[in-house]
Amino acid sequence: MSQETAQDVSSPPLAPVPRSPWIISRVWDLVLFIATPLLILPLLWLWRQRSSPDLIYAFVTAFGATGHHLPGLMRAYGDRSLFRRFRLRFTLVPALLLATTLPLLFTELRQGMMVILVLWGFWHGLMQVYGFARIYDAKTRNHHPRTTRLDWLLCLSWFGVGLINSDGRVYQMLEALYQAGGPTLDPVWIDGFRNLWNAGTAVVTLAYILHLSKASSEGQSPNPLKLLTMAISFGYWWYAMVEVDNILYGIALFEIFHDVQYLAIVWVFNLKRVDGDPNVGSFSRFLFRRSGPMLGLYIGLIAGYGFLSNLQAQVTFPPIQNILIGLVWTSTLLHFYFDGFIWKVREKGTRAGLGISENGANDDSRPLTDGLLHASKWTPFVAAVAALTLAQWWDSGIYISLEDRNRRDLERYQHLVRVVPRYDHAHLTLGTRHYAAGNLAAAGKSLDRALTLSGDGNAKAHYNRGLVDAAQKDPQSAVGHYLRSLELAPLSDQAHHAHFALGAAYQSLNEPDRAESHYLQALAIQPRFAVASLGLGGLYRHAGKLDKARFHLLNAVSLLSEDGEGGTHLEAAQQQLESLDRP
Predict the structure, then answer these.
(1) How big is the CA angle at 479 (ends 476 and 484), to the nearest 5 degrees?
(2) Of 161, 162, 140, which is closest to residue 227 (Cα–Cα)?
(3) Could you report the per-residue pLDDT of 409-421, keeping only the tens digit for each?
(4) Residue range 382-403: average pLDDT?
């Protein structure tokens, strides 16, 4: 890929800025860039009291993770000189990425791309923290090359420590890898790699401390705000990945921190650009003004862009859903890619927008790398997509029958339990796989292990343990697990299933009033829950309440017919309806 360069566009120099270690000010830097987790944690704790971790994760990933792509795209396509400089990257790469993602989605060979998105997202997150480290050092004109290298190594090491010591993240990555047809990895090798990385991180940290000591003795102390930013970021990453009991909630915790930092730095950057750079586009000049309504519009545009991710989750027509997912994936990949070169602190334009001295800054009119050299950096991405897609295609060709695929999946989840034996979700998933295969004893054993590891606090494990008990003709025990599930997660998006299961269990225990109550609660949560209407209709039929029975059975037939996959439930509803008309 050749890279076009723009003619040198001279910009009037910005007025000299006072030398300050802060990006904005003492208060706003602490709120938006450094101590942000101290605000996030109590707010998310309150949110979790009113919503489930799954719903929090879905909201944050839609309106935050996807929404925060927009400011980078604004910079790429709204900065005229930047666009001229990187015209091919901004026009050709989006088309190529969309042309890559859509075929993977329409052929159901998508798992490999999901592995790549997780790994590139990890890299993107650590590089943002590294970027703030470079900004804070640049504010105090600390440009020691060894400091720069050690900053990068420290970020890589500590983010890696949080990742590989997180049972939840390791489980997620390996699950996606195995679904893509990747090879199963020996747990001994994984443990060895984890120990080696932890030891390497200790060495890097010691080297960093020694370097700081030497630099301080030579009068080249780093900006203390940089050290505070990295320390809080590393600690918060560890807490979110390792200490939090729900990995989706942990991801949401760190995602909010990442998004707030990004949205704030882009806003500040563009305000300064508008003040001093005539090459800023008209849209950016309109939006980025020191005005409350403009800030509100900025946040609103970001939330609106994030709606794209939420929309794909709401659409049920597969072709449209695949197109929307492809757009979200392309947006995510472009965000990772563009951020790798449009915010370089060593560039004059970036330094001007951040209020950093331009002494020693690079010329903004030249490409960062030669076109062919830059194109070669895409080799790992292309190779990974090709290898993982081929692996999934090959895997699907080997395991053709449903029985073969189920056996393969069960073996892989058994392997995952050996990799992360202390992770309750791994045992929960294995238990559900055993239950689906009809291995009730094995399912019960796995689910009991999940409950033990979670300190009796895993709502999904309780719900599934109740299903196993019900299948083993022990409805009394099942009721206890269902109730505990609702006690732990009353706001879960699966709560209506627990109420339905309770209704069925109480019905089998000949407690019709309690059964009716839980069937009705299931329908109150999810009015289109067909099997709850079927259960309630059957309950009323047995109680002789024929009008109520007819109403709910007709509703069940209607919903199950719309679904197109009613199967035995539809047949049962129709038979019960017919029985009402018999003398």
Answers:
(1) 135
(2) 140
(3) 999 999 999 999 9
(4) 88
For 422-440, what is each residue's pLDDT tens digit? Answer: 999 999 999 999 999 999 9
452 and 326 housed in the same domain: no
When divided into structural domains, the chain yields a total of: 3
* Predicted structure pTM score: 0.89
Radius of gyration of the chain (CA): 28
Domain co-membership, 62 together with 117? yes
Nearest to 155 by CA among 134, 173, 172: 134
Asked whether residue 284 is assigned to any structural domain, the reply reads: yes
User: Does 456 map to a domain?
Assistant: yes
CA distance 421 to 413: 11
Q: For residue 556, is it within any domain?
A: yes
Same domain as 288, residue 214: yes
Rounded to whole angstroms, the Cα distance separating 219 from 140 reads 12
Give yes or no for residue 252 having a pLDDT over 50: yes
Q: Which amino acid is at 371?
A: G
Looking up residue 493, the CATH number of its domain turns out to be 1.25.40.10
Q: Are both 541 and 497 inside the same structural domain?
A: no
Q: C-alpha 270: how far from its chain's center? A: 27
Q: What is the pLDDT of residues 13-71, one digit of tens each?
A: 444 445 789 999 999 999 999 999 999 999 999 998 888 888 899 899 888 899 999 99
Range of the domain at 447: 422-526
Q: Indicate whether 367 and 440 sit together in one domain.
A: no
Same domain, 562 and 502: no
The answer on 502 and 551 residing in a single domain is no
Q: Which of 392, 410, 438 is the last residue of a domain?
A: 392
Using the Cα atoms of residue 486, residue 488, residue 491 and residue 493 in order, give the sign of their dihedral.
Answer: negative
Task: Determine the Cα–Cα distance for residues 260 and 56; give it in Å rounded to an integer.
Answer: 16
Q: State how far the Cα of 406 lies from the Cα of 418, in Å rounded to an integer.
A: 19
Measure the CA–CA gap between 427 and 447, rounded to whole angstroms: 6
The CA-atom distances, in angstroms, between 313 and each of 68, 321, 491 are: 18, 8, 19
Q: What sign does the CA torsion over 467, 469, 475, 476 have? A: negative
Six-digit token string for 59: 């909201």
Expressed in angstroms, the distance from the first to the final Cα of the chain is: 80
Category of 458 on φ-ψ map: left (φ > 0), alpha (ψ -120 to 50) or beta: beta
Q: Count of CB atoms within 10 A of residue 582's CB?
A: 5
- The pLDDT tens digits of the residues spanning 281-305 come to 788 889 999 999 999 999 999 999 9
Domain membership of residue 558 (yes or no) is yes
The torsion defined by the Cα of 52, 53, 55 and 56, in degrees rounded to 10, comes to 120
With bands split at pLDDT 50, 70 and 90, how would you rate the model's confidence at 515? very high
Are residues 488 and 554 both part of a single domain? no
Question: What residues are paired with 79 via a beta bridge?
Answer: 280
Residue 369: its pLDDT value, please? 61
Length of the chain, in residues = 583
